[in-house]
What does this fold into?
Amino acid sequence: MDNILFINSVDRTSLIIDLKEKLQELKINIGLIVASTNEFCTCKKYVDCFVILPQSKNTPLEITVKELIEKYNIIGICVASNFDLLPLLRIKKWLDHRRVKLIVPQKKTVEFCLSKKKMYNWLSSINIQIPKVYSYEEVLKSESKSIFPLIIKPSGGQGSLYTYKVSKLNELSFYYPKISTPIIQKYISGIHYTIDCFNDENENPLIIIPRIRLIVGTSSCIVTKIDMNEYVIATAYKIARLIKIIGPWNIQLIINPEGIYVHDINPRMASGMIYSINAGAPFDYYLLELLIFGKISERQFQISDGSVFAKRNIIEIID
It folds into this structure.
């Protein structure tokens, strides 16, 4: 039997359950295999096969994936973590030779999305507003206290991990040496959005669903509201038309009376994408179609605007 491999380095249990249900609903005889670093992941009882990913540096992800493809007749691969994208791109030619579909953006897109500095330069070049970025030296030389509060975070981070809001210079000086390749930016107050997006096999935008992050946990959105705000959608569409990407991805932005500020693009699915699915967006069907057939067929859907969703399993983290 053919199988789809879902690399679950960060927990996407709700989506995995949904994908398995959709395969059964469509009566497609294809199995779902999940590879995870967490042996206690709750998704293991819902899939056809569950594999533990080794976390040793001596066993790179791409080596494990090759072994799984040979063993389980994998026809398509999707991932949940930014950090799994580049290792898989390193074996893309090998995968193409075996006709394994890999739902991962182009290397150039992944590289600039994984570097906040490169991402902000690109967003600025297409006239998208971003939070003002400072060097550490600029903050030290500033005589104005109004420069605070600031956000300091890793340039190549994911979600809210190692992201701190600082209100004083001594706080900034405390975190600065502790963060690898830190980036410092102006703190923006306002309404926080995650926009779930999906581009088709020709990199054309198919789905753009803005969600307000009503309650945010450690690194993820716990309660969210679908909000089809036309200005947010227009900003996301401008990015979606120009970015070279296939499959699910997401944008993080903040809106306030001064404008819309994009502060992150993640070239992979958000954990909260399941909320957009529940509101009517066919991310799951489209993802399966790309993995199995390589193209999208039906392109019509209706969204339940204003719907509010709460995360049932708060173990699933990193929006």
